[in-house]
Write a structure and sequence with these properties.
alpha+beta, Hypothetical Cytosolic Protein, Chain: A, three-stranded antiparallel β-sheet, two-stranded antiparallel ribbon, globular
Length: about 110
C-alpha cells in the first residue's frame, strides 16, 4: 500500500459525563475508580480501573459532581471528601482555554 492510499489515523472519541459532548479523548480528563475502590484523577490515562471522562471546564465538573453523573458512570458512590478534592482540582482548570494550571487529586 502506498502512502497516498493509507487510511487516516482514527482519533478515539469519548463523551463527557458532565455536558454529554463527544470530544477527542486527549481533550478530556479521565477520572478512574481503581480496583481498590478509590476515585482519583488519572492524568496519564493509563491507570487500571473503570474510567469516566470530563471536559477541562469547571462547569462540567460541577454538574457531574452535584447531579451524581460521575458516581453513576464509575458505578460507585463518590464520598464527600473525594467530591471536595475533585472540586479543588476543577478550580485549578482555566475555563477559557481548557488548559491546566496545576495537577492535583491523586489518592494515596
Amino acid at each position: 500500500m502506498s502512502r497516498s492510499t493509507r487510511k487516516p489515523k482514527r482519533i478515539p472519541q469519548r463523551t463527557c459525563v458532565g455536558c454529554r459532548s463527544v470530544r477527542p479523548k486527549r481533550e478530556l480528563v479521565r477520572i478512574v475508580r481503581t480496583p481498590e475502590g478509590c476515585v482519583a484523577v488519572d492524568e496519564t490515562g493509563k491507570r487500571s480501573g473503570r474510567g469516566a471522562y470530563l471536559c477541562p471546564q469547571s462547569s462540567c465538573w460541577e454538574k457531574a459532581l452535584s447531579k451524581g453523573h460521575l458516581g453513576r458512570a464509575l458505578r460507585t458512590s463518590v464520598t464527600v471528601e473525594t467530591r471536595s478534592r475533585l472540586r479543588e482540582y476543577a478550580a485549578d482548570l482555566r475555563p477559557e482555554t481548557g488548559a491546566f494550571e496545576k495537577g492535583v487529586g491523586e489518592d494515596e
